[in-house]
Design goal:
Strand content of chain B: over 45%
Strand order of the largest sheet of chain A: 6-5-7-1-8-11-4-12
Order of helices and strands of chain A: HHEEEHEHHEEHHHHEHEEEEEEEHEE
Largest interface: A-B, 26 and 32 residues
CATH class of chain B: Mainly Beta
Strand content of chain A: 15-25%
Oligomer: heterodimer
Helix content of chain A: 25-40%
Largest sheet of chain B: 4 strands, antiparallel
Number of helices of chain B: 0
Shape of chain B: globular
Number of strands of chain B: 30
CATH topology of chain B: Methylamine Dehydrogenase, Chain H
C-alpha cells in the first residue's frame, strides 16, 4: 500500500498503530491515530449511539419544568440521584440516573433536521467530515479487525438524513453498514451453484485489476472500493452477528417487541462481536403536533429498553468499555404550539451519556425557569464531540492526514466537558 | 330544549372570560348555573353564570382535557394523568365529591350515559372503562384497543357505547355492547387520516365523536387528510355507511361536534391563530352559519336549556398560544 511518509513521532502514532501501518492493514485514507491510552490487551473501547431521530423534547425527558408555562402536563419525578428529577415518562431511567451523566445545557443553535443530524454527529457545521460513528470506527480500528467498524440500525423510511454524512473524507471503508428493518445486509449467503473456487478466481481477478489500475494513481478511493469487498467477505463469514433469532426469547421480550427494542438487542450482539460503533435510531420524535401523546408513546418504548440495555451492558462487563450516548439532532421548543406540539429547538436542550470514560451521577449545566435558554455552563456541539472522544480514550486535538491534507479530528474551537469525564 | 324555537344562524356573543392558559374543554353543569373549563393547567375554572364569579377548583395535577356533566348535579373532569374528579354542583361553589385514578395514562375521552348513571373513560393506551357515576366504581372494561381512544359516546339506549381511535392510516369507530364487551360494528374512517410516510406518523385521526340524540347518526370529527379542511363525517350508526361529509372552508381540525335538542349540529375547529364554530343542518352539505374566532376553538358545550352555548379557545398571535378564552353565546328566542 502507498502510505504518506509520516513518522509515528510526527503524528503521535501509538505503537499499535505504527505496527498496523507497517504491516499495511490500516487504510491509506486516515493516518493520525489518537489513542490517549489503552494498551491492546485491554478491551476495545466501543461506542453505542442511541439517536432519537426527530428531536426529543428535553422538557418531557431530562430537563422537566413542571409548573412552568412551558412545562407541559407531566410531572417531574425523583431519581436515584439525590435532588435530581426527570420527566415522569422515564420512570425506569429515573432509577439508574446515578449511572448516567446528563448535560442539560446544549446550545447547538440548530433547528433543522438535516443540518442537525450531520452537525450533532460530526461535531461541527462544516460539511465533509466523518460523523461520530465513522470517526470512531477509524480511530478505534485494530489491525486484526475484519468486521465493519460502524453499523447503524434503523427503520426503512424516506428520512435518509438519518445517514447524513457518514464517513466523509475517510472514505467508503468507514461508512456505516446499514441494518434496515432488522434485516442484515443482503447477499450474505453465497448463491447456490456457485463454487468457492469460482469466487476465489473472481476475487483474484478483481485484485489484479485493482493493482494495475492503482499504478500512478491516488490509492484512497480504490482502497475504499477494495475494502468493501473485504468487509463483505468478512460479513459473509460472520453473518451470525446479525441473527437475532440466536438471542433468547426472554431477552427479546425484555428489550421490547418493537423496532427500537429489537435493534438495541441487536446492538448488544454487535458490540459483543467486536464492532466499534453501533448506532440505533429511534424514530418519530418530531412531535409538531400532540407532543405529549407522542412522547408518552416514544418514552415508553425508550425507557424500558434503555434501562434493560444499560443494565445488561453493566452486568456483562461491557459498560466499562462502552460509551453510550443518547442524543437527537436537536431539542424541542419550550413553547407549545396550537396543535399541542413542540417544534424544533436548538438553543437549550439535553444529551445523556453513560459508560466508558463517563463520570456517573452527574448533571451538568442548567436552563432557565422556562427552559428557553441555557442559564449556566453552555455546551456546543463541538464540546460534545470532544467529550465523546475523550471518554473513549481518544485525543480530540489530533489530526487526520489524508492525501496531503491535514484536518482536525474535532473542531478546534470545542473543548471536552471535564465535569462529566471520569 | 328552549321554550321557543331558536334560529341557529343567529348566535350572539354574551360574554368572554380570559384565562391565563390555553383552554381545551368546557361544560355547563346539569342545572346550567356554572360553566366549567380546563386546559393547559391543573386548575378547573368554574364560573357562576349569573354573577360571573370565578372560582378555580383544585384537585388535578395535570392538564384537564375532558369534561362532561352527569345526572342532576355532577360535572366530571378528566386529566392527562388519568384522574377523574366528580364535582358536586349542588354546592356553592362546586366541590369535589369523589376522585379516582381511572387510568395509568392520559384520559383522551370522557362520556356520560343519557341517564347519567354511568360514564366512560378512554385513554392513550386504548383502554375503555365504564364507571358508576354515583361513586366512581368501575363496572366494566372493554377489550383493549391497540390504539389510543380519542372519542367516546353512549348510545341513548344505554346498552351500547361508541369509541373512536387513532389508528394510523385507518382510524376506526367501533360500536360495543357494554354488557358483553362484544364489538358489534366497526367503521374505518380513512378520510380522517393524516398519515405521512415521511415521518411514519399519523397526524390526524378522529378527534371528536358524538351521537345524534336518537342515536341514529355517528359524527366523527377531524381533518380530511394531512392538510385538508376541518371536517365532520356523518355515519349511519346501524350500518356504518357514510351519509354525509361536512367540510369547513377552514384548513385545520374539527375538534368537537354537539347536537342541539332542536336537531341541528354545531362544530368547532381551528388552525394556527384562527378558529371557527359552525351550525349545520345534517341533511345539507353547506353550513347554516359560521363564525370566525381569533383563536382555534377547541371545545364546545350547549347549555342544558338550549339557549346558550360556550366555546373555548387557545389565544396567541402566532402558532404558540399562551392564553385562553371562554366565550358564552346565546341564541335569541
Amino acid at each position: 500500500m502507498n502510505q504518506p511518509p509520516l513518522s509515528a513521532t510526527e503524528i503521535g502514532l501509538t505503537r499499535r498503530e505504527a505496527i498496523a501501518r507497517a504491516i499495511g492493514i490500516v487504510g491509506a485514507t486516515a493516518l493520525a491515530p489518537v489513542a490517549l491510552s489503552a494498551p491492546a490487551t485491554e478491551p476495545r473501547k466501543q461506542l453505542l449511539l442511541l439517536f432519537l431521530s426527530g428531536g426529543a423534547s428535553q422538557l418531557e425527558t431530562w430537563d422537566p419544568k413542571p409548573g412552568a408555562r412551558t412545562g407541559g402536563p407531566f410531572r417531574a419525578i425523583p431519581t436515584s440521584l439525590d435532588g435530581v428529577r426527570i420527566g415522569e415518562l422515564l420512570p425506569h431511567t429515573a432509577k439508574i440516573m446515578h449511572r448516567l451523566a446528563v448535560v442539560r445545557s446544549v446550545n447547538s443553535t440548530i433547528a433543522d433536521h438535516e443540518v442537525g443530524h450531520y452537525a450533532i454527529q460530526a461535531g461541527r457545521l462544516v460539511p465533509g467530515y466523518p460523523v461520530l460513528g465513522s470517526a470512531v470506527a477509524r480511530l478505534l480500528e485494530r489491525p486484526d479487525d475484519v468486521l465493519p467498524g460502524y453499523i447503524t440500525l434503523r427503520r426503512d423510511g424516506p428520512k435518509a438524513y438519518t445517514d447524513t454524512g457518514d464517513a466523509g473524507f475517510l472514505g467508503a471503508k468507514y461508512e456505516a453498514v446499514k441494518v434496515i428493518n432488522g434485516r442484515p445486509p443482503e447477499n450474505l449467503v453465497i448463491p447456490g451453484g456457485i463454487q468457492p473456487a469460482v469466487l476465489q478466481a473472481r476475487d483474484a481477478a478483481r485484485r489484479a485489476a485493482d493493482e494495475r489500475f492503482l499504478r500512478g494513481r491516488a490509492p484512497g478511493p480504490i482502497h475504499g472500493y477494495g475494502t468493501t469487498f473485504d468487509q463483505a467477505s468478512a460479513l459473509m463469514q460472520r453473518r451470525e452477528i446479525f441473527d437475532l433469532d440466536a438471542e433468547s426469547a426472554t431477552d427479546r421480550d425484555r428489550y421490547g417487541r418493537h423496532d427500537f427494542g429489537q435493534n438495541c438487542l441487536l446492538a448488544r450482539r454487535l458490540l459483543k462481536s467486536g464492532v466499534s460503533c453501533v448506532r440505533v435510531v429511534h424514530h418519530d420524535w418530531d412531535a409538531h403536533q400532540d407532543n405529549f401523546y407522542w412522547h408518552q408513546m416514544r418514552c415508553a418504548e425508550f425507557d424500558r429498553t434503555f434501562v434493560t440495555l444499560i443494565q445488561d451492558l453493566e452486568e456483562n462487563g461491557m459498560l466499562e468499555h462502552t460509551l453510550v450516548v443518547v442524543t437527537g439532532e436537536m431539542g424541542r421548543t419550550p413553547q407549545i404550539n396550537n396543535l399541542g406540539g413542540r417544534d424544533h429547538w436548538g438553543r437549550a436542550w439535553s444529551v445523556a451519556m453513560a459508560g466508558a470514560g463517563i463520570k456517573p451521577g452527574v448533571v451538568f449545566g442548567e436552563t432557565n425557569d422556562t427552559g428557553t435558554e441555557v442559564k449556566a455552563d453552555q455546551v456546543s456541539i463541538g464540546d460534545l464531540f470532544h467529550t465523546y472522544l475523550r471518554a473513549l480514550g481518544l485525543n480530540p486535538h489530533a489530526n487526520y492526514h489524508l492525501n496531503g491534507q491535514t484536518n482536525p479530528i474535532a473542531d478546534p474551537a470545542g473543548k471536552a466537558i471535564t465535569a462529566v469525564l471520569a | 330544549m328552549p321554550a321557543m324555537p331558536i334560529d341557529p344562524a343567529k348566535a350572539r356573543l354574551v360574554i368572554e372570560h380570559k384565562h391565563d392558559a390555553p383552554l381545551m374543554s368546557c361544560v355547563f353543569d346539569p342545572r346550567g348555573r356554572f360553566l366549567f373549563s380546563g386546559g393547559r393547567g391543573p386548575g378547573v375554572m368554574c364560573i357562576e353564570i349569573a354573577t360571573g364569579e370565578k372560582t378555580t377548583l383544585t384537585g388535578h395535577d395535570s392538564w384537564v382535557g375532558e369534561m362532561a356533566r352527569a345526572g342532576s348535579d355532577l360535572v366530571l373532569t378528566g386529566d392527562y394523568l388519568g384522574r377523574v374528579i366528580a364535582w358536586d354542583c349542588s354546592a356553592e361553589p362546586p366541590r369535589e365529591r369523589w376522585n379516582i385514578d381511572a387510568h395509568p395514562s392520559t384520559i383522551r375521552a370522557l362520556a356520560v350515559s343519557a341517564d347519567g348513571e354511568t360514564f366512560a373513560t378512554g385513554d392513550r393506551d386504548g383502554i375503555v372503562r365504564i364507571w358508576q357515576t354515583s361513586d366512581g366504581r368501575q363496572l366494566h372494561e372493554l377489550p383493549k384497543n391497540v390504539h389510543p381512544i380519542y372519542g367516546l359516546a353512549f348510545h341513548p339506549d344505554g346498552q351500547r357505547i361508541v369509541s373512536a381511535d387513532r389508528q394510523p392510516q385507518k382510524p376506526q369507530i367501533k360500536v360495543w355492547d357494554i354488557a358483553t364487551g362484544r364489538e358489534t360494528l366497526k367503521i374505518e374512517v380513512a378520510e380522517l387520516s393524516g398519515y405521512r410516510r415521511v415521518e411514519d406518523i399519523e397526524w390526524g385521526g378522529i378527534r371528536g365523536l358524538t351521537l345524534s340524540p336518537d342515536g341514529s347518526l355517528i359524527v366523527a370529527c377531524g381533518r380530511a387528510g394531512y392538510d385538508g379542511p376541518a371536517s365532520a363525517l356523518l355515519f349511519d350508526s346501524a350500518t356504518g355507511k357514510l351519509k354525509r361529509k361536512l367540510a369547513s372552508s377552514l384548513k385545520g381540525f374539527c375538534y368537537m361536534a354537539r347536537f342541539h335538542a332542536q336537531g341541528f349540529l354545531m362544530t368547532v375547529g381551528g388552525d394556527v391563530a384562527k378558529g371557527e364554530f359552525r351550525t349545520w343542518n345534517v341533511e345539507q352539505d353547506a353550513s347554516l352559519a359560521d363564525t370566525s374566532t381569533s383563536g382555534p376553538c377547541t371545545s364546545l358545550d350547549i347549555h342544558p336549556e338550549g339557549t346558550r352555548f360556550a366555546v373555548t379557545q387557545a389565544i396567541g398571535k402566532s402558532s404558540y398560544p399562551e392564553t385562553g378564552l371562554l366565550a358564552i353565546y346565546e341564541w335569541p328566542a
